[in-house]
Amino acid sequence: MTDALRAAIDRLSPTQRQAAEWGEGASLVLAGPGVGKTTVLTARIARILDSSRNRNFRILALTFTTKAGDEMRDRVEALVPGLTDRTFIGTFHSFCAQILRQHGSHIGIKPDFGIYDQDDDRRELLREALDSAAKQGEPVSPDDTRWLRSIDQLRSSLVSPEKTSRHFRDTVAGERAARVYAIYEKALRDNNATDFNGMILDACRLAHTVPAVAVRTRQSYPYWLIDEFQDTTPAQYRLVRFFAGDDFKNVFAVADDDQIIYQWAGASYQQIVRFREDFSPSLIQLVENRRCPAPVVQAANNLIAHNSDRTPGKEQLVSTIPDSGGAIFQRVYSTESEEAEGIAAEIAALPVTERGHTAILGRTRAVLQPVLEALKTHGVAASIATRRDRFVSPQFVWLQSCLDLALRPGDRQVFTTMTAAANRIAGIELDSAILLAEAAASGAGYLEHWALSAAASQNDVAQKLSAFAMRLVRSRSSWQQTTNEAMQYLLSTAETPDGGISDAGEDRAAWDAAARAIRAEKGSQPDLDELLQGMKLRPKEPPADPTAVRLLTIHAAKGLEFDFVWLMGMAESVLPSWQSLKASAPPSELEEERRNCFVGITRTKRTLTLTRAEQYQGYRKSPSRFLAEMNLPEPTNSGENS
Q: Alpha-carbon distance 117 to 536, whole Å?
């Protein structure tokens, strides 16, 4: 055992150690906020790897986000250097991508498939396919793109086109939806592509139609770990069931039913119930909170006790941090604008060194926006955390599109995107529709025809881009060198007059971060198809400013922690939302709002400030019921320390 691993295990509490040293069979680890679940997961992975150095099996660890997977992989590497190549630590979608690369040919999927991750691109793909089908006599029209949302729901429920019609009460509508769905799937296959829902669906389809793939997976990965199990969707859980089969039980699931806040995406307490029914796991509870001050832990326990969708016998969190007082503050303002200004003024008075450890949380971005503006007025660096799923600069949109076309030369949507990006970079006006028609008439590939047209444009930038594109056309094997040289040139086309960081500079940082993580996930340099698939599965945010105040929705803050947390909008119909308070709303909606609040308050390591206004948008609002449920005293002034 390495010294680092021995020291890590010695630091575990008795219950943490019980979980980390779990051997064979199913286990459900209930892990509340701040109890060190990542520490337990990484210690268990490292322990198994360390004790089996002469064996060649791998460990499968599924995470909810790429960031969580990257952090877990780094921690394992620190504990047992050189052994992480015997793991797969990543998201459900990353796992499906690997399975489909290795075995997808059994169901007609080529290893270098592309991933459509933008709704606009998927809608245009379907529109063109419908137009083509209509010309061939199919009873459809381009207007049938309106069925795409229904198709997404069907795919997320693992419903195939053949079984679609039975899910509609209206027979005619069901038949039309099935027809459009089949056309969409064919368009994806013709373009050697899939989408996010399709990856889960195709992996399940593969395990169902070719059981040997599931058998091989169980043999290769005899130990499975699932982080944030409470966030799994029904489709993701069915994926686990398909690959586990009837007899495999070696699944170690870490969950917290008090942090299910993605109900709108399919997360449900019922997934935990099903797991207990299907796998009969042993139950381990981690309750020692090492993050929050004792008053915050007590408030969290008081609050969440009002929910009923919880594992029977679940224990309360126990604070391990001494109560030093002054942990929870309440602020009451007259209006939402005064709330925003009051928060900004207090944070502006903080030492600059503390601002980078400060977070302002709200239920929605709309609640946060006025605070951001107020902070800027006070000269405080701040930003609202936003997931960025695509590159924003034309330089990196062009580069990614060119690499996509090197793999899938017939993708019209990617070609249109690439052409538009090149026009912005070079200041030219090549028409993608004309180029597509010309390429079809000449028999040339789309990327090659564009490169020839750009070379003839008499534009220096376009000619340089043309040269890079033609290198990809002529030799895909040299894509790494071509990509590196193209990046350097592309950055030079985006230099800002004041020397600031351009969108291309931020995209380069995001590209490099994603490429490093993809390489670490594989354990070696990725092939071009692996790189592009990995890029589509990862967010594209540049590294955050470590000195800036962070404004986040509660959903975006899940899994994070900060020294100082402000949770705003603690008023009825704000948090909890007005939708959850309607007479027609099911009890589960209010329970999820309560879990939202629970997640928000447990992000703090030092102080928690709860704020509300007496009126929002001109309407008076009562204090959030969650304040009373936390058993906090009613503040007598705007600065009361609870």
A: 7
